[in-house]
Amino acid sequence: MRAETTSMPNRLETTAAVEITSLNLNQIATLLKQKKVSPVELTRACLAQIEALNPLLNAFITVTAESALQEAHRAESELQRGVCRGPLHGVPVAVKDLFDTAGVRTTAGSALFKDRIPQEDAAVVQRLRGAGAVILGKLNMHEFAYGPTTQATGYFGRVCNPWATERISGGSSGGSGAAVAAGLCYGALGSDTGGSIRQPAAFCGIVGLKPTYGRVSTRGVIPVSWSADHIGPMTRSVLDAAIMLQAIAGYDAKDVTSYDMPVEDFVAATALQDRVPIRIGIPRDFFYAGLDPEVNEATEQAVAELAKLGAEIRDVTIEVSTDRTVIQSEAYTYHSKNIAKHSALYLPDTLAKLKLGASIDIAAYIKARLKMDQLRRDVPKSFSRVDVLVTPTTPIPPPKASELPAKFEDVMTSDGLMFRNARPFNLSGLPTISIPCGFTKAGLPIGLQLSAAPWREATVLRLAQAYEQATNWHTRRPNIGAHGRFQGSGDGS
Q: Is the pTM of this model over 0.85?
């Protein structure tokens, strides 16, 4: 790392006793605007945090320290000249290793792509750079984003949960969830085909936002399923998620899955209100069945809190699809040539899952795709009586890595359970956010999921922000303790 050359104040003590890497993205943006901290200081602090904790968490595959410091110096110079690109300018973030980065390897967590170096940034990476963000590196993930665990069998090793390292961080964006929760970066990008932003967000005690299908470009992102892939932010607060979404949302004419829809002011949507006169639907028949008792209790308490904020609570019944035909077929289509030539480079579970798509004939795929299209056409009807659907993000807290099954049939059952409440919103394409809503007695995070009608990201952000400000769950941070275990801070009440 080259020596710092800056005339901006070097005054981290202005944050008093608060560790700079534990602050929210929005808090950091405020300090940058006030010139109380510099992009170079922030980047060095994050790199130091990565050096200290990544050996334990394994959240990063590639750390781009040299280029990150170059970007930080550039941002610092611009800010000194009065050039500000917005609240992300000079803020260190990271991206899942599924997103192409020019000149930096993009592995998708697989031996197959361990030396793959793209020539161009993914569209969302371009937009982050355009907003002035500093890219710290590439985050670990479940191989080819095709699973919920980011488990030890991964080519780059498993990601550990910052709250209890023997637990999984979730997947497939497990590195993103762990890195944000542990303060290795101020925000991250994840991808979500069946819950891969929201489930690790819930397991790691952070915010994860899956926008409406087509809201954010997927160009330059290694696909799982073109029909169900979503890109979104993972952050420590709802406002942070709004800030990152503002930077990456918008039409991309080069992406066939992108929709040309107006982009609202998502940050303004999080403005505080005394009360939230909103209609909330509780779809108990599917999403509340068979919950872990502590997840159920935390969810019910969260719903009661929303009612105190002025929400009208109604039980509702909605159409739910968890059919995997489209996703499995499209995933196999992308990988079929590599499976034929290089099957030994895939992990056994990933290969077995991908091969499930080989037996799906064209007629079955077309029927399933038409059914998905019809579901997306009909789903707005679910919001004729309510504005937001509220469910647990996951039916269970994060399991221990040692508890995960070994037999493939049991793996599929376990995967289905961890993604059960999330996958339906990929198939319907609805904007959905996971926010912290409690902790188990063992100190494990629990997530609450809010979903609205298509293109209503502002609605879920507004309600999520109201709940977040009425509670303290989001203020908890995992702190390293004895035996590699993290202990939470903050009372969360």
A: yes
* Residue 483 backbone phi and psi in degrees, to 5: 60, 30
Q: Which residues are catalytic?
A: 96, 172, 196
Query: What does CATH list as the number for 26-489?
Result: 3.90.1300.10
Question: How many Cβ atoms sit within 10 Å of the Cβ of residue 150?
Answer: 35
115-129 burial, b at 16+ Cβ within 10 Å, e below that, comes to: eeebeebbbbbbbbb
Determine the distance from the C-alpha atom of residue 200 to the mean position of all C-alpha atoms in its chain, rounded to a whole number. 7
Q: Are strands 477-480 and 388-392 parallel, antiparallel or unpaired?
A: unpaired
Residue found under tokens 């006793």: 17
Q: Is the pLDDT of residue 489 over 60?
A: no
58: left (phi over 0), alpha (psi -120 to 50) or beta: left
For residue 188, list its beta bridge partners: 94, 234
Tokens of 246: 């503002």
Burial of 2 (0-12, 13-18, 19+ CB in 10 A): exposed
For the stretch 7-17, pLDDT in tens is 333 444 433 33
Q: Tell me: the pLDDT tens digits for 176-193?
A: 999 999 999 999 999 999
Instruction: Give residue 479's pLDDT band: very low, low, confident or very high (50, 70, 90).
Output: confident
